[in-house]
Amino acid sequence: MHPWRQAALAAFVLCASAGAQAALFEDDEARRAILDLRQRVEAVRQQAEAGTQENAQLRRSLVELQQQIDGLRGELARMTGQNEQLTRQLSEMQQRQADIDNKLKENEPTQVSVDGREFSADPKEKADFDAALGVFRAGQFAQAQTAFADFVKRYPRSGYAPSALYWLGNAQYATRNYAEAIANFRSMLSTAPDHPKAPEAVLSIANCQIELKDTRAARRTLEDLVKAYPQSEAAQAGRERLSRLR
Fold first, then answer.
1. pLDDT of residue 45
2. In terms of CB atoms within 10 Å, which of 6, 128, 136, 169 comes out highest?
């Protein structure tokens, strides 16, 4: 073969070989690019699937959270209703307790002062005595006699009893029931000889005896008055009456 033909053939073979190698290189790059792209696509797909799962889990969590919130709202509403009911019940109980306390206070004994004596008395007891005394002071002696007699029967141990007997005797004196008046004055003196009204009760007994024309008994009564209560105004009046009886 001619030398130049050999050189041309060699050059052609070299070029062909280089072209083949270049084409092979380009195919490898393309395959690697495709593989890389596929890997990226797969990664994106996996991420998308993971994201979808996360979103689904998040939605489930949100649903559960909403259910818990609704449950708590219901429980809160129930507790609020219970609290309102308890508040009403407490208010009613407090009102009932206040009513009971007021009633107890209305019936509690209070300190009173009558005819120079102080003692404890129930409100009803005080009201009954004041009513009877009001009748006496109004000059309604027959009604006062009944009112005080009823009081003594109703409250025999009352701190008002000596005063009630004293005013009962005076009401009876005013209605000329002298014997009954004497009995009640003496009953008062036997239960409360140190009562501030005791000297007047003794003087009233003497007055009743004078009205009954029992001068001797009246004189003895006045003498006892002067001895027992010498400093009292009633004793001074008794001395004057003694002087007239002699």
1. 76
2. 169
